[in-house]
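RECORD TYPE: protein structure
NAME: Type IV pili methyl-accepting chemotaxis transducer N-term
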Amino acid sequence: MRFESLLRPLLLWTLGVLVSLPPLAVAEAASPQVQAQAYASRATSSLLLLRGEGFQNSHRQRLENDIQTLAAAVQSLPQSSDALRASHLELVTQLRRGVSFGPSEDNVPWGYPQELAKALREFLHAARQLAHAGDSELSAKVEYLAVQYLSRSYIGSFEIAREQPDTYLGQDERLLVPAVDQELATLDAKADPALTKLRVRWEYLKAALSDMNSKSNTLQSVSGRPFAPITVDRHSRALTQQWMAQSR
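PREDICTED:
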């Protein structure tokens, strides 16, 4: 009886703590391994934006900041691997190559977009190997979609990992948009009002990303409207920033 009388207050206290936590604090929104993936795609998007928008200083600085953020994320991972370290080095090398060509597209080797895409995919794959089963990949998926969108907007189709159709690395908007949509639909916006703003932002992104038309080689949107890379980039980054902040 004495043991039960001591245990009851402890159980009530534990339940009280769990109830007081926001929904995503119990199920971590983005693990460090997934955040590293999101940062890698962000850095790649920053290079595409830098090249596509004429080498503006603000975009150059953002790319450098993203490279440093990615390095810090890789450094702080609870575990690493030779594949991750090698692929991180290769990705940074390709990002800096993309700057070294200068703003003229005539100076960019024809095979560079494929080399950049390969470097990103290999880093993402290596980081995924260190992640835990069940980790939410929502932020990584959204940033990967942004890379695909900016790539189609500025340099041509992004080459996904077609040998991995069951992972987000081998998928485009036709599978990734419904996957993100489904995950967001399971969240309780009433319990966390911040999710309402996140969902509103996603509704815009969903419309733009679904219009990407990856199945076509014509680089024209489904609707025929011009691509909006700057806006998609801004909303993607804001959405994933809010999502990843839920896990801190």
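COMMENT: The mean pLDDT is 88.
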